[in-house]
Specification:
single chain, alpha/beta, TIM Barrel, DNA polymerase, domain 1, 9 helices, 14% strand
Amino acid sequence: MNVDLHCHTNMSDGSLTPDQLVELASERGVDILSITDHDTLDAYSGLKYNPEKLRLITGIEFSSQWRKQGIHVVGLNVDPLSDSIIFGVAQQKKARQDRAIKIAERLNNLGFEHCLKGATLLADGQIGRPHFAQHLVNIGAVSNIKQAFKKYLGAGKVGDIKEQWAELATVVQWICESGGIAVLAHPSKYKMSHTKLKELLEDFCSAGGEGMEVISGLQVPSVTKDLATLCNQYGLLASCGSDFHAPGMKWAALGFVSSLPDTCKPIWDRWA
């Protein structure tokens, strides 16, 4: 079964429209798909393309903070009309706008003008760091988006602002109250020690989290094995996704996700 439960459209920081993404997923033989844009469900409101052989699970990727570190939590099979999700999305939208203003102010202090206006014009949906990165490319401050993140917007850089996000436990609560499953997104990308990752998982489970991404994009087998072990150790359901943002990114290609280890319990069994 071809399953991709983590991807993005231009409603957040992806390049394809929701219809284009679903069409591409269908062409690549995806059986179960979830669009998980950052802090928004807007992709689902205007979606028209609905192939018969593809099952679409309503999803979202919430930003959160845990011990002052940014952590992403995917909500799968959420009810977009639930009070908790509506409230959570509204809170995150305000937080994103506040963050965008702070990022623009910091970049302005470095001599880069009109960053907020430039990023806003580039964003079809939520304003994010990739839009600021593209603006920096457009004004000639950097040669490409990768350089923009390396110099100004990546982890620990001047444009990396996390403190406004809701706490991890709060985000998990929003998802659970909507009838969805909270999934810890791409654990290996946080670059934590094994001990700290286990502490994160303990807090995540205590908050009501039920799932964990064992596979995120192109991943070496040893990482998958380690994450599968942790997933089973904490009794979590295993999820997987490409974290697709745009065509041409071979490490995050839509529909090209490795199979879960046989030892894991797939999260989609909940919807069987």
